[in-house]
Design goal:
The structure holds two protein chains of two kinds. Chain A is mainly α. Chain A has helices at 3-34, 41-59, 63-84, 94-116, 142-164, 166-176, 178-183, 188-213, 220-235, 243-260, 268-287; strands at 132-135, 138-141. Chain A has one domain (16-218). Chain A has a two-stranded antiparallel ribbon. Chain B has two domains: 3-80 and 160-265, 3-Layer(aba) Sandwich (Rossmann fold); 91-157, no CATH class. Helix content of chain B is 39%, strand content 24%. Chain B has helices spanning 43-51, 73-79, 96-107, 113-126, 142-155, 172-187, 199-205, 223-226, 230-237, 248-252, 259-265; strands at residues 3-14, 17-28, 32-36, 58-63, 66-67, 81-84, 160-164, 191-195, 208-213, 216-221. A six-stranded mixed beta sheet of chain B has the order 6-7-8-3-9-10, sandwiched between helices. In chain B, α6 links the parallel β7 and β8. In chain B, α3 (96-107) packs parallel to α5 and α7 (199-205) packs parallel to α11 (259-265). The longest helix of chain B is centred in the last third of the chain and has 16 residues, at 172-187. Classes of the chains: A mainly alpha, B alpha/beta. Chains A and B meet through α6 and α7 of A and α2, α3 and α5 of B.
């Protein structure tokens, strides 16, 4: 086997893991704190990507600056969706919750198709996209590297926030015992609102980065929902801290299969399904 | 003495069933007030109406003259109502101290971090949980959990603390500790309203007793008086004209268990 190729696959996987973790950690936050399985999570990511695209096309705003604009915008969109829909199904059966978020996802995808059409959109002519480094035969692009660093920093920042800050404590308290939290003075609904908005904002930031890394179509949301689900399942549903490790595992698996298996690039999505399948079967065998 | 907590005409219907029907009572500053009654009398529902976990069909709750009826559970907590549960509600993946700190931080809006820490430490001390502070809440024994539950409620700086069957499931020695614990909470200046099945505990702790049956108030007064009330005896024992009159305490205390615990305490 070509060792260079293997090293390249590993590095690509690790770099991709940052972005995956950023998107997945938001999904895990919604599941862990609010108890909502948000199938529209990838669509927040997609909207982030297209907002970055539009800001660039209309106003010439560099995606680096879009990061700062898109995050609050998605936070606001998340807050609106929570207030207008999610909060009414908190006590509904899980199937109803999933149907609702799935429906929201479909609506958002189709709105994006109406506005931007189905063709891939490229943020053209940004100089730093072509910058890359060679390290011992492995090539590392500046953009994937920066995306990894930003994502990784944000995920660690979220962990820090959950562990150390008042709002993080509030989120953990609400996640662990909703009734107990309300009785010690926590407005549970407000904490949920913040958690959902934060979840959407993190996805939006990820979207800005994918708009630079790839040329996304409105279908990119569903693809990333799938990736995020595989990661959240590996980490354990709602386990926020496990997401970082799970992202590495899933992203490296994807990268190895895509690089080392003949025609592997077409198998990328299969890797996620296989991982979800394998983990669920393994877990249920352990229980039985 | 001044009235601190007032429930007026509280009613709760679940469909056609009136779980609580026109319940009124007043609790005075610094007293220990018991709500007793047979199973299904509506005691816990009443406490849920007072603490805001349930919305009453009719009636009002007033604390220090302030109407709490339309407030959420969290807002009532901020107003000064603490609540501890029969089935404890800890944050299992936090340490005991962090549990109590959450109560201190969010029970009083705008409290500084230092004050919250101080209040948490004080609540740990009062409830005798200082030595458990660094343990995870999920590792605790039942009695330790109950202490934590009360410590956390105490850390929210309540003027009135609502306790729902604190003694349930405790062994005699533990029940004795729990009685002491409730007293020390009152000695902190906190008014206590509690639901209890174990009658000797009620006798030892309660300044006044409210007796409920079928969702209504049967009577109210001092322990010695209400337990002699024929209606109360009937509510607990059923109406039986041939049976000799019996002590309510003996009937209500579950087979010996926690009964003698409180005896020793007295």
């Amino acid at each position: 086997m070509d060792l260079n190729l293997l090293a390249q696959a590993l590095v690509s996987g690790i770099l991709a893991a940052g972005l995956y973790a950023l998107v997945s950690v938001g999904l895990a936050l919604a599941i862990g704190v609010i108890g909502i399985v948000n199938f529209a999570h990838g669509e927040f990511f997609m909207i982030g990507a297209f907002l970055a695209y539009q800001l660039f096309v209309s106003f010439g705003i560099d995606p680096v600056w879009s990061l700062l604009l898109v995050a609050p915008a998605l936070g606001l969109i998340g807050a609106l969706i929570y207030t207008s829909t999610i909060r009414f199904v908190l006590k509904a059966p899980e199937l109803n919750q999933m149907l609702l978020t799935f429906g929201i996802g479909i609506i958002l995808t189709n709105m994006a198709l109406l506005i931007w059409g189905g063709d891939p959109r490229t943020i053209a002519g940004i100089a730093y996209r072509s910058i890359g480094y060679q390290v011992g035969g492995v090539s590392i692009g500046l953009v994937p590297l920066a995306s990894f660093v930003i994502s990784f920093t944000l995920v660690l920042g979220l962990y820090w926030m959950l562990a150390r800050t008042p709002i993080g404590r509030a989120m953990r308290a609400v996640a662990q015992n909703r009734t107990g939290a309300a009785l010690v003075g926590l407005e549970v609904n407000r904490v949920y609102l913040v958690a959902f908005a934060l979840s959407a904002a993190l996805a939006g930031i990820g979207g800005v980065m994918i708009a630079v890394i790839q040329s996304p179509t409105p279908g990119v949301g569903l693809a990333f929902t799938l990736k995020a689900f595989a990661i959240v399942v590996v980490a354990g549903l709602g386990n926020i801290r496990g997401v970082l490790f799970a992202s590495l595992f899933v992203a490296i698996s994807e990268s190895l299969v895509a690089t080392l298996v003949p025609n592997g690039d077409t198998l990328r999505n299969a890797v996620f399904f296989a991982i979800i399948f394998a983990v669920l079967v393994w877990r249920s065998r352990r229980v039985a | 003495m001044s009235v601190v907590l007032t429930a007026k005409g509280l009613s709760k219907r679940f469909g056609g069933l009136a779980a609580v029907d026109d319940v009124s009572f007043e609790v005075e500053q610094g007293e220990i007030f018991a709500i007793i009654g047979p199973n299904g009398a509506g005691k816990t529902t009443t406490l849920n109406l007072v603490s805001g976990l349930l919305v009453p069909t009719a009636g009002s709750v007033t604390l220090h003259g302030r109407d709490l009826t339309t407030l959420t559970a969290a807002e009532r907590c901020h107003a000064g109502l603490g609540r501890a549960f029969q089935v404890v509600q800890p944050f299992p993946e936090m340490t005991v101290r962090e549990n109590v700190l959450v109560g201190a931080m969010f029970g009083t809006p705008g409290i500084s971090r230092a004050d919250a820490e101080r209040r948490a430490d004080h609540a740990l001390e009062v409830t005798g949980t200082t030595n458990l502070a660094e343990r995870d809440a999920e590792e605790l024994t039942l009695m330790e959990e109950k202490r934590l539950e009360i410590a956390r409620a105490l850390a929210t700086a309540p003027t009135v603390l609502l306790l729902d069957e604190v003694m349930a499931g405790l062994r005699p020695a533990e029940a004795r500790d729990a009685v002491r614990l409730v007293r020390s909470v009152r000695d902190e200046g906190v008014t206590v309203v509690f639901i209890e099945h174990v009658m000797p505990v009620v006798r030892d702790l309660a300044d006044r007793v409210l007796v409920m049956d079928y969702g209504k108030v049967l009577t109210e007064g001092r322990y010695a008086d209400v337990t002699k009330d024929q209606r109360v005896i009937e509510a607990y024992l059923g109406r039986d004209d041939d049976a000799p009159p019996t002590d309510v305490a003996a009937a209500a205390a579950p087979a010996g268990a926690s009964g003698d615990a409180a005896e020793d305490e007295a």
